[in-house]
Amino acid sequence: VQCLEMTTKRKIIGRLVPCRCFRGEEEVISVLDYSHCSLQQVPKEIFSFERTLEELYLDANQIEELPKQLFNCQALKKLSMPDNDLSNLPTTIASLVNLKELDISKNGIQEFPDNIKCCKCLSVVEASVNPIAKLPDGFTQLLNLTQLFLNDAFLEYLPANFGRLSKLRILELLNYLVSPDVLEQIHSLKELWLDNNSLQTIPGSVGKLRQLRYFDLAKNRIESLDADISGCESLEDLLLSSNMLQQLPDSIGKLKKLTTLKVDDNQLTSLPNTIGSLSLLEEFDCSCNELESLPPTIGYLHSLRTFAADENFLTELPREIGNCKNVTVMSLRSNKLEFLPDEIGQMTKLRVLNLSDNRLKNLPFTFTKLKDLAALWLSDNQSKALIPLQTEAHPETKQRVLTNYMFPQQPRHDEDYQSDSDSFNPTLWEEQRQQRMTVAFEFEDKKEEEDNSGKVKVPLRI
Predict the structure, then answer these.
(1) Coil, strand or helix: which one is 331?
(2) Which fold has domain 291-412+426-462?
(3) Per-residue pLDDT reduced to its tens digit, 365-394
(4) The whole model's pTM is what?
């Protein structure tokens, strides 16, 4: 319990004001915070400041009903009452004509009153985790709305005039939305979160969202991506994980500003050659698909830093992958790779490389150029990040290769076996790199290194 003394003509923040230790009549309280106080009703004390109160926090209580007197606080600009037991939002909310931010998330509210339209200053509405089945038409008259969060609601459709919200920048609809047709009208959108829905298609008209930068469509039922997606010319992050995509349109190569592309856990059998046009791409994840090969144009991804293609059917890598010289983390776990191209030695910034569960017989000798390599995973039950490598002559070509006791790799027979590499997180490994041990390649004789006929031991030492 906190008792506040106030000097005249000075705005202060009051927290829990149960006692009246106030001097003077010109004091102004603009902010009150009653969060986490186990309240069952709105404290009557706040009504003493209904003319000056601008922010009210009632977070995480057990309030079931909002009194009418609360809506006499017409100076309110922010009303925060998430995680309560509210079942409805009274129509008297129309009185809060200066309200800019409203947070009613984690309650039991089933609908907005239509006269919410009177709160014309509203710019941020957080109403996630409520059983809201629909939005009233009046909601589309909130023309100053810039951020709207409706995750985990019961929405299936949006009002037909939803596109009138021309200032909307961030829209999150992680729930049961069936049709996003009206979204194309909101040309101002910069972030659109539609993950964890039941979407089966994305209309090509979404391509009209030319200002969109972040688009999350993960965990839906999307079978195809319309070629007009290329109209989203400002896209930087496109997340399509866990859908039913069988192919990507060639037009995806026109998303020139894309830095992150995730298409993992789909049904892709190939990647378009135009993937190489994504010159700014830094993170690319195509794991858990049905890819048998990668296009040679992948070598044009000069900005690529993280690349994952786990759990596919890759039998070889294109030689051009060596041109991805900025890659620091690459994971190719659970494929059918029998050999790696010599050009992989050009990827000199590699720090983490996962080759577990393949059919490799050895590694190319050019691996000795990977001076920054800090983790090399070769086996499903490998307990150490690095193991010693030594040179041998290939029995057929007589070329020098790198090998150890783990070669040749054999595919797993026990599908139920859970290994350490199943939870391998290359991004986490990259963050912890500085705390781990580094690798040093040492040669007994540099002259012998240049002599392909000699047999030089090249220990990979920790």
Answers:
(1) strand
(2) 3.80.10
(3) 998 899 999 999 888 766 676 677 777 777
(4) 0.69
